[in-house]
Amino acid sequence: MNQISNQVFKFVALGGLDEDGKNCYILEIDDDIFVIEAGLKYPDSYSPGVDYHIPDFQYLLNNKDRVRAIIVTHGHDDIFGSLPFLLEQIGAPCYLTKTTYTLCKSDYDGQFDFNKYKFHFIQPSDEIVISNRRFSLFSTTHSASDSFGFVLRTELGNIVYTGDYITDYTSIKHHIFDFAKVASIANERNTLLLLSESSGADKIGICAPNHRLTPHIKTLVEEQSQRLFIAVYSQNFYSIQEVIDLAIENNKKIVIVNERFAKALPEINQTDTLVFPRGTLIQANEAIRYSSRDIIVLVLGTGEELFDLITSLATGSYTDKTLYIKPDDRFVLACPPVPGTEKIATDALDAVYQTGSEVLNLTRKQISSMHAHEEDIKMMLALFKPKYFLPIKGEYRHLMQNAKIALSTGLGFNYSNTIILDNGMQITIDSSKTLLPKINKVESGDLVVSGKVIAKNDGAILRERNRLADEGIVCLTVAVSSKQQRIISQPEIQMRGFIYLGDQRSVYQEIYQMFLDTIHELMAKRMMTTSDAEKKLVDKLGKYLTKQIKKNPYLEVNIINIDEKDIV
């Protein structure tokens, strides 16, 4: 007789559902919590001053004593971008490959002390045990090298997390899908829950071979007659390796444009990924020794960084003045923009065209992002035949399309065992393998990061910044003495992004007069505080500017009373 399990399983996402990026998923078995991914998301054009968004980790902070591990499956910033922020707060051990660690450390060089965190370096097809729970890893084919999915073995059945993957039978080293292990695990025991990525679910067929860069640039390299610039995301090791292989085959020299990546390259090479044979990689100042037809300039970066580099090369403002795009160069943009970077990508492309060079702009119609398409997803569903299916990682339309794929397979999926969730919605599967109807809500949301400052994304910060961007700012400053009842310093008014220079004089005079009137009123009324005077002036100016100028700038009034006790 089979022993009845007493285990209870819970799942919740803190990010990654109904959005592109910020992936963070939580698997709970009884008292053990395992965090899968800790990513970031790039801001859109309506988020001025924000570098990126990260998940709100409050739920994990509230349960930090139960967090057994953080598992990061590959080296993309939507997967590891918020990892240092999480480690700072909960200090749990982190399991990841050495390549992923190196990329994360490179991105946050100098901002965090990685030596104080607990890292366990693993291989993509390892068997690992964490808190007496067995994880069977399997390598996948993805643009990041050494990416993996895993199977968490529980008494209830297997929990399968696919990671990012495509079906590809001819992949290069460090990008090989371990079909044998996946098939072996699938046949070994029943799968309780399959968690499958969804960001490519709206694409028909399979991803391969449209993900390959080589067919688009092979002839360009073989018949090269001028310098060839190729722009690729620095975390897309698959495409970078394709460029390296073509350079080796055709005796080309590679110059890397990205100081941060070049600095991390020796450590990356120690993992046996992106190994440049001796003599293939050269410095920019060495390029003059070679013919232009023998030089490939590899432009690398993440997100906006890459497009900033492209623009600097096009405008001649790159730090190394010997590197700029000339009219007789050829430029390949193999970096279709990711969400949040569309505008800066368009500006960079326009800047390249203005150089007069030949341009090949590869869009997503020509080179696919390496995420599972419809038939790739069907393959996983057919292999594992899970009792429950939960699409993850994607916008809502992607999640829905992934669910529709499952319903169309004829494998027994229906509306009761195919689950669509939003961030913060927690499901429970009890010891009888029954999905409980009650869905709990846990705290989730966005934190916005600007430099080293982290804040809650409650909307107020972004509304204030958008107001600054759209309406401008007016700053008024003066020092007064309430005891002497006089103005100590000349009133100063600063206006930025508010009105055109030619219109400023009359408006300036009106604002200046209102400022003086309010200050004199403050001096005359001993019961009025400087705070009251500041609020009164903000209200008075706001009404005037809205009525006369039809604009509502951010108003900053600072009346410094040298006689108040809080003045140092």
Topology:
Elements: E1 9-15, E2 24-29, E3 32-36, E4 52-55, H1 58-62, E5 67-71, H2 77-80, H3 83-90, E6 94-96, H4 98-107, E7 119-121, E8 127-130, E9 133-139, E10 148-154, E11 157-161, H5 179-188, E12 191-197, H6 214-222, E13 228-233, H7 237-249, E14 253-257, H8 259-269, E15 295-301, H9 304-315, E16 330-333, H10 342-354, E17 358-361, H11 374-384, E18 388-392, H12 396-407, E19 425-429, E20 440-441, E21 446-450, E22 453-456, H13 460-471, E23 473-481, E24 486-487, E25 492-496, H14 504-524, H15 530-548, E26 554-561
Fold and architecture overview:
The protein is of the alpha/beta class and 568 residues long. The protein is 30% helix and 24% strand. It is built from 15 helices and 26 strands. The protein has an eight-stranded mixed β-sheet with strand order 7-6-5-3-2-1-19-20. A six-stranded mixed β-sheet has the order 8-9-10-11-12-18. Helix 6 runs parallel beside helix 7 (237-249). It is globular, with a radius of gyration of 29 Å. The termini are far apart.
